[in-house]
Amino acid sequence: MKNGIGFAGVGDAIDDFMLIKEATKGVASNGKPFLTLILRDATGEIEAKLWDAKKEDEALFVPEQIVKISGEVNQFRGRSQLKIMAVRPAQPTDDVYISDFVEKAPVEKSVLADKLTEAIFEMKNPALQRMVRAFIKKYQEDLLTYPAATKNHHEYVSGLAHHIVSMLAIAKELHILYPELNKDLLYSGIILHDLGKLKELSGVVTTTYTTEGKLLGHIPMMVEEIGLMAKELQIEGEEVVILQHLVLSHHGKAEWGSPKPPMVREAEILHLIDLMDAKMNMLNRALDKVKPGEFTERMFAMDNRAFYKPLFEEN
Amino acid sequence: MKNGIGFAGVGDAIDDFMLIKEATKGVASNGKPFLTLILRDATGEIEAKLWDAKKEDEALFVPEQIVKISGEVNQFRGRSQLKIMAVRPAQPTDDVYISDFVEKAPVEKSVLADKLTEAIFEMKNPALQRMVRAFIKKYQEDLLTYPAATKNHHEYVSGLAHHIVSMLAIAKELHILYPELNKDLLYSGIILHDLGKLKELSGVVTTTYTTEGKLLGHIPMMVEEIGLMAKELQIEGEEVVILQHLVLSHHGKAEWGSPKPPMVREAEILHLIDLMDAKMNMLNRALDKVKPGEFTERMFAMDNRAFYKPLFEEN
Amino acid sequence: MKNGIGFAGVGDAIDDFMLIKEATKGVASNGKPFLTLILRDATGEIEAKLWDAKKEDEALFVPEQIVKISGEVNQFRGRSQLKIMAVRPAQPTDDVYISDFVEKAPVEKSVLADKLTEAIFEMKNPALQRMVRAFIKKYQEDLLTYPAATKNHHEYVSGLAHHIVSMLAIAKELHILYPELNKDLLYSGIILHDLGKLKELSGVVTTTYTTEGKLLGHIPMMVEEIGLMAKELQIEGEEVVILQHLVLSHHGKAEWGSPKPPMVREAEILHLIDLMDAKMNMLNRALDKVKPGEFTERMFAMDNRAFYKPLFEEN
Amino acid sequence: MKNGIGFAGVGDAIDDFMLIKEATKGVASNGKPFLTLILRDATGEIEAKLWDAKKEDEALFVPEQIVKISGEVNQFRGRSQLKIMAVRPAQPTDDVYISDFVEKAPVEKSVLADKLTEAIFEMKNPALQRMVRAFIKKYQEDLLTYPAATKNHHEYVSGLAHHIVSMLAIAKELHILYPELNKDLLYSGIILHDLGKLKELSGVVTTTYTTEGKLLGHIPMMVEEIGLMAKELQIEGEEVVILQHLVLSHHGKAEWGSPKPPMVREAEILHLIDLMDAKMNMLNRALDKVKPGEFTERMFAMDNRAFYKPLFEEN
Amino acid sequence: MKNGIGFAGVGDAIDDFMLIKEATKGVASNGKPFLTLILRDATGEIEAKLWDAKKEDEALFVPEQIVKISGEVNQFRGRSQLKIMAVRPAQPTDDVYISDFVEKAPVEKSVLADKLTEAIFEMKNPALQRMVRAFIKKYQEDLLTYPAATKNHHEYVSGLAHHIVSMLAIAKELHILYPELNKDLLYSGIILHDLGKLKELSGVVTTTYTTEGKLLGHIPMMVEEIGLMAKELQIEGEEVVILQHLVLSHHGKAEWGSPKPPMVREAEILHLIDLMDAKMNMLNRALDKVKPGEFTERMFAMDNRAFYKPLFEEN
Amino acid sequence: MKNGIGFAGVGDAIDDFMLIKEATKGVASNGKPFLTLILRDATGEIEAKLWDAKKEDEALFVPEQIVKISGEVNQFRGRSQLKIMAVRPAQPTDDVYISDFVEKAPVEKSVLADKLTEAIFEMKNPALQRMVRAFIKKYQEDLLTYPAATKNHHEYVSGLAHHIVSMLAIAKELHILYPELNKDLLYSGIILHDLGKLKELSGVVTTTYTTEGKLLGHIPMMVEEIGLMAKELQIEGEEVVILQHLVLSHHGKAEWGSPKPPMVREAEILHLIDLMDAKMNMLNRALDKVKPGEFTERMFAMDNRAFYKPLFEEN
């Protein structure tokens, strides 16, 4: 079994550096204040209670602070909880950095950038290619570091680019199996479909939703961005509307946030590829944490199902 | 009872000018061709069959052609059908015009224009006022002639402006009863909420959906337009996003085409005022056609309900 | 920011009289008994824990007892909780009364009574007018003091009459904008629609549901009452059935408790006015508690939405 | 196979008296008028077209007229249709009566009356017994002749009483198997549950819905009737409310017309017995018309299912 | 009121033997470990906390261990909780056995076995009879001891057989009232419908789901079993498929686990009898615990309804 | 545009051999009999009316008869209809065969067989490989000729094998992109998932559902078959249950016919690959029939959507 809090089981002893993600003050039933800490390393997160917290503790143990912590993993109401034995803030001499404690895509940023460039090189339709190129230029930094979501799938550094690049790989193969697919359109749709998240989400670490994101959502925001960009680049022709349609419809149904369902072949396939890669990402990471013969925890974003790892898998 | 095809009952004789809205060729069970005509005047429409149609007839009786027709109203499969006795195309000397045969708002265009201007004068927030003023200028002609829909409610010439002006009147009174409402925001939302229909619908007569309208819908198109206009007018501040939110959410629920539900007080009230005016428009026109003690036909857009006119109404 | 527990934030000190709404005994993790108190003043309510509660405390701190309490507002599992420093029952010399601690409509009872009388004066249909007059006479006291519900909207003293009077004001304006509406019918429907709550709810303070209310609900109970009253007053004619229909259908849909949907124009509008006033009541009170740029708490009766107060509102 | 139009197959010759249930005028594609007749005998109904109908025919062939008809059963758009060879109105000398052509319950009226009396004799609770007795007296004639519905189940003369009596038989046995059931309450609920139909439906032959029935429905009408009757008989005690609850909740769910779901044991069982008898009635009559190895037609009131008669049934 | 934990109210003192059903370790807010015990006797279960649990305690107080416990029933977050005064493991000399602490069907195993045999004797169709007989022989022991479910209804020793035998009794009476029903088919369906639970559930005490049960469910497993058994017994003819259909469809709807809805008369009735007996079982046991004039707790498997026991019930 | 009835437009003349798929007798409004023929060639089908049909015609023009027909494509109620000029049964000398008129997979049977063999060669898990090999042997002929459905997707000769082979191609690529997938399990699931259709459907031409298919459905039938085969081959181990789970869950949701949702990684992916290939098959064939700038007809199995072919597609 691998190292890290994401892989720790009940009874395991912990003695390591971790990052405070959230810290909330509470009052215990004996009337004394305590802190509820959400701690994380690059493999996962865990809750911990700091009992009898003093005023100084409240000032020391705040979000984005790294701490050295030792304790034991217990179970509380069916969820893991870290029982704290000792905790102190990290010192400069500890030589630890926030970036050590956040989960990252399993592929390097530079590789992701290269894959995106490759895909654009394969495109032939000038309108689509210019549009995509302009967006990649506009958002180059954020696009390579943002997560694809705050939770569920690809919710780690470079998650968005990782998701796009995996989807492009599926699209490439599907285009060989089904040559009727317009590869340029599908590629553009894949690269742009979630770029609205760069404005919907607040940033890379301890990500939340922006006010604009809450009130409009990434889909209409990106449809608008495509319209503005087309105007700026003076691109005309149906490509613009079709690309807006691919973005608009990629959640598949009105109830899921797409006011129009897919009505173009590549829009339908974009929706399916998005589903497939998101589900594989969630399933692989959840099954990675259980042994053959066990079920994972229930996964909210998979309709609350628990998945089984068959006995004949060699883990 | 009023005059016009919308008020004619089974057995009534008809001898009048009407406009051909649709003409479709068919083959009768005796093997001879016939034409199915949808005829209309300013009060409604009716189907008619022209049996034994000759090649010349097919050329004469086409959409947007006015005809002089005499016949009798029959019933066929539970719906009214006009039995044609005689029919001829209108002549220039007949002195009849297409505009005579289309339904119009019960309020003059100039009155509607004045009411819009009045509302803008009442507004004080400069960002909102400039935005609204710019849109009214941009679309001034279409805004005063377009219908609000292809069917169901306000589906007549100037229907969109009629709908907006009625909604403004409700908003004005609600603002007095509930002074917490931001009148400027509510007015702007009302005026802009359906302007996307000017691009979603094909025109004023024999209206259909544009390709862009089918693939994107008027809501995301208008959200984009507001973004473009704000950029053009260099308007900044939260007014832009809030106005986009009002437009985006005005259908109330994801299943009804709003990817975000109302999350601002005026957005919620805009949705309710929209519902109220649309329903009053449908109900009044349907109940106008029945006598006390009768039910209307089932109305699809009112959840397929038939409405009853109580006996104590004086019609 | 206004005074009162409904406006207190985390960290605020409290030193005031409050009313005990609920008191429940529990056992702490150290094995000692404690009391969970729900305390309220005229602006809202808060939970508090009385640790190490003695037998005497259980007898002293009971529902409808007023207490003098000092403490500090803390946060517990995301909700406010009052940390008790000192608490004692109120004395006669404190000169405080239960009626000081319950929320009341922002309009005086006498004004509400006058508004109802005015509305009845405007009515011309004798059957409807006699019916409404008889009910107002029958229930005059309760009608002016009952809340409209146990929670969500108008859940305060005189809430029912406040709701009715606000709805009448909307109806009056709508009747001017849409003269097709039968004002007498709409007024009668508004005044009677929720009177069944006088039998469904247990009373004015610490309101619960009666057994009859749970088994039948206010809608069928009021339909029955109208039938009985018509018999008593020997009123005949369709007005009785139509009025029963307005009451029966005012929740709009079978799933929401109306076995028949609105099938009369005024029934549909009654339903919409009811929605509009209930929502305005909930929204205004929730938004009153947040600052510009903030979201309210999620509101269960508004489909669990949180509402945003734009930055450009002057609070 | 049995005799009668309900059992006739495509190709069968017909030469018999039938009752006209509906007659509608139409115009054929050759421009000549025709009549669409819905004809019935005691076993079922069939559509027939009378081509080239003259003015006299329109006057002769009207609803509730008995006709002597000969023809052949054909198929038209997947449904049976009677091809008319000859048709004439019945003469007094033909010695046929409307009552010969309507379907009747398979049990005699007098037997049904006796069974109801027996059930009342078994009851011991005086409040319930007096209430039921009063209703049976009030509606004695209609109760023994009305159908239970206009279509689907027990839609024949005495259908309502037949349905009640079958349900009482099930209740009697269930009470033996589950002695916890309050037999008196269950019996009263069964006898009264659908009596509102006597006011919701227009009569015994060619039954439609009354205006009151459409606007209120039989359930709230019967709840009101119980309230009025209790007042008249000066019955007090919880029996009245519980009986109203049984009637109110007997459709089981709000979506099915019960604003409150069953919340009393006997209410839940009443709902299930109602379902069971209605379904057996529909299934037996539909399966009676097919041979082993065949499926019935799709049955709308059985969720549009077609039922299979196994090969090992001896028909 | 009856004896046993299922009937104990808040404040009652307890001094009795109970069985530990579950034991979970936790950490209290003072940092000390505690055990959460779920204790049961033959009438119900209750939660209890063992504070300051030592390592020895963790080893002593484990599932399926009988304990002698004294304490008091308290309320915690609206649910009963046993406050432990003293607890010790049972000794051999205490003369108590696991079987004393599990709920059992109110009918003896031998009686249930006889009733099953009787039913088989009544059957005449040889294919159905041989099939049923073979299954009863195959599963004779488990069939008489298994519960019908892990919770909700008949979740006690011999619950499955008790459920089957009650259903057979209803079927017998229904067959008399509706002689069209094929008794042999209905009996076979009732006896076999839930036998898949013998493989879906893990056993008689502290029952859980098997992996196979989770992945396939008892319905498809039993359809397969019938196919295998028919092959083994060399039974041919439509009886096999029809019996598989009865089992497959007995949950009534796809959403409830039946991929095909009932399409044979006896399948529909089997579904209704199953519902009726399950509901009577749940209702009788819940109402047994409340007094006249009270509501039961909300019952999850009854659509979360609370049921009322009328005042005129003699308890 | 391609040849064949599937590509013919209104006004096109037809003079070709076609196969009668259905023939229904009707009576025209002039009282004369006619035949409604559904005619097909390898590209599609069309309705035609044979007016004034004589007894001989009824005998000549029957399903599975090939005819030489000339006529013109007309439009009737919005659908194409062939107006018959001349028609005669085909003669032996015409040298035409039923197999010429049925649609076939675009890939040869032998190629499909080879692809299946290849896939099995790639498998390494002996239990899975033996199982799959045994089924392919058992059904070798039908598996290569059956359609995958009666309508919607792959509803042509060899459609089932074509569907399987396309899915295997996707699976092969996905396994490279996501090496966590168990290729053997996914391959087995794909090959077996729809084999139950060989018993659910009646055959290759004019395919309908068998009685067993209607009552049980292909999913439970195949789960049973796997159980029987495992017994026959004496295969034990979890592979059998997991394979049954893949088949059982491949429709994804209970409402869609899978009583258990996918709970194994490969089950989830099997469901998605199935969807993807079915949708591509429907989309490609529908879009093949329209020109750039046009929408397809509404497709029932694609949630009734019409799909758009962008202008920039080169057809």
What does this structure look like?
Chains A, B, C, D, E, F: Keywords: Hydrolase. Chains A, B, C, D, E, F: It comes from Virgibacillus tibetensis. Chains A, B, C, D, E, F: Residues 163-279 form the HD domain. Chains A, B, C, D, E, F: This is 3'-5' exoribonuclease YhaM. 6 copies of one chain form a homohexamer. The longest helix of chain A is centred in the last third of the chain and has 23 residues, at 265-287. Chain A has helices at residues 55-60, 109-122, 126-138, 140-145, 159-177, 183-192, 197-200, 211-216, 218-233, 239-249, 265-287; strands at residues 13-27, 33-41, 44-50, 66-76, 79-89. Helix content of chain A is 41%, strand content 17%. The relative contact order of chain A is 0.09. The first copy, chain A, has 11 helices and 5 strands. In chain A, a hairpin with a 2-residue loop joins strand 2 (33-41) and strand 3. In chain A, helix 5 (159-177) crosses helix 11 (265-287) and helix 10 (239-249) packs parallel to helix 11. Chains in contact: A-B, A-C, A-E, A-F, B-C, B-D, B-F, C-D, C-E, D-E, D-F, E-F. At the B-C interface, helix 5 and helix 11 of B face helix 5, helix 10 and helix 11 of C.
